[in-house]
Description:
The protein has 142 residues and is of the alpha+beta class. The protein has one helix at 2-34; strands at residues 65-68, 75-80, 95-99, 109-112, 117-120, 126-128, 139-140. The chain contains one helix and seven strands, in the order αβββββββ. Bound molecules: FE2/S2 (inorganic) cluster.
Amino acid sequence: MARCQILTEIGRRQFLKRSGAATAGAVAGAVVAAAPARGAFAPARVTYPSSRLANLADLRVNEPFDISYPDADSPGVLLKLGQPVEGGAGPDGDVVGFSILCPHKGYPLAYDPSDRVFNCAGHYSRSGSTTAATSTPRAWTS
Length: 142
Ligand code: FES
């Protein structure tokens, strides 16, 4: 019986030590979690191949030019926006590329030149394209 009492006492001490450590960890976690969250896109660690997708002469302002990049199963479009944008390609710095697969479920996005947005048939979302740096879907830029 005394042995049981000793084991119980050891078990209780270990429980208290561990629960104290867990509490300290939870408090530390709460302190860390109290810091404001800062969202940022992590850069993709992928090397995309350089390839010729179109001739500049084939591009018209605000008309999507169908492409596949970086492989045949990845549909996209090139858009000549008609105004320079950060990271834009071409002599006018106004050519950007977009994947036309929605990032959620892979629905094909359709570009509507009348209001310069990509429409998703999956959930009727609309994503702007007028500036490459702030657009969603994310633009590929040079
Ligand atoms: S389901 Fe992905 S953009 Fe609509």
